């Protein structure tokens, strides 16, 4: 196996989500984007967040499921400013699963679902 890549399936808003993510995370970029299927939809895209590659698509098939917090993206932050800003931006229009706080296993931790339904755990180690 050469690598494992997180794969996100959206239903019509993949490009909006990608642009949101690369706007709030430093050292992030779209590395490829192919449109197809329904006009404006993403057939396949790759983007990076601080060197970590992600793949995503817009599904032309409607599903009765979406993202769930049982699988989340875990971000280790470097500063309090960074965790506070990411928490605010990612939770805007989404939902807070665990407010930022000291839960004993971390100096500062928060868990959110963003406005696209993707779950993020934000951690500031001790």
From TrEMBL:
CDD domains: PhnB_like. SUPFAM superfamilies: Glyoxalase/Bleomycin resistance protein/Dihydroxybiphenyl dioxygenase. Residues 3-122 form the PhnB-like domain. Signal peptide: none annotated. Gene3D superfamilies: 3.30.720.100, 3.30.720.110. This is VOC family protein. Pfam families: 3-dmu-9_3-mt. It comes from Lederbergia citri.
């Amino acid at each position: 196996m050469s690598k494992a890549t997180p794969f996100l399936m959206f239903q019509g808003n993949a490009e909006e989500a990608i642009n949101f993510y690369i706007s709030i995370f430093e050292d992030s970029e779209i590395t490829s984007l192919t449109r197809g299927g329904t006009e404006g939809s993403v057939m396949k895209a790759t983007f990076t967040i601080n060197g970590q590659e992600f793949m995503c698509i817009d599904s032309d098939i409607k599903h009765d499921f979406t993202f769930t917090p049982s699988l989340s993206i875990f971000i280790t932050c470097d500063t309090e400013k960074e965790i506070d800003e990411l928490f605010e931006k990612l939770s805007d229009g989404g939902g807070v699963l665990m407010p930022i706080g000291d839960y004993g296993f971390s100096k500062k931790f928060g868990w959110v679902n963003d406005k696209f339904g993707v779950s993020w755990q934000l951690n500031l180690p001790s």
